[in-house]
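Hello K.,

You asked for the raw outputs rather than the summary table, so here they are, unedited. I folded two proteins back to back in the same session to keep the settings identical. This is the first:
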Amino acid sequence: MSHDPRTPGRAAPVGAALAQHDLLRRLRALGLSAEAEPRVLRFLQRELEQALERANDQRWTAEEISDAGGDEALLEGLRNLRRDQRRAAALREAGLAQLSPSELEAVLNAAQRS
């Protein structure tokens, strides 16, 4: 595991695909049956998503941070992050996260044409 020098003790960020691949590799090391692996993977993903949703419910709003004297650059970064989180959730809900790269590209090309 590589570490981010800016935050000692915390793992460096990795892409979602790499994280999922690593999780699947670790699940396979447990010796689960081939039928159980996808179910356990989906269960873990749902649990993580629910934990993140609970954490998001308790977060401060940009207005609260601004009222406390938060820097405008920080607020802009926070707004961008939350916008991206909403977009990612919408993509997951629409089922686009399960598409292969070629399928996703075809959907995006069709959307741009219309």
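The second followed immediately with the same parameters:
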Amino acid sequence: MTPPAAAAQSSRLISRGARVLLFAVLSLGFWMAFEERYLAHQECIDNLVNSSCIGPDGAHYTPGGMLWVVPSAGFALLALHAAYTLCRALQAHALSKAQKQNGP
């Protein structure tokens, strides 16, 4: 592999790793919103008499807070897929490197 091609492949591996990290961070962020807006106040929300639960800080919590889990799950699946493709790319990179060292 020529030096520019090797640099391009390294750049692709780095961008794939960054994609895994980005999707994982986004998934975690939405999960934290789900935790704060729904799970932390689930008992109060489940015992609703009105349409919302008022927390100690004056914030209104509704059953709609459970929807934060949807983007969290979506980004988690994207992170898993990106991690899988990164592993496959790393395996292919290692295989091509080993073949190059052993010669034809």
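Residues 12-102 form one domain.

Happy to rerun anything if the numbers look odd on your end.

Regards,
P.
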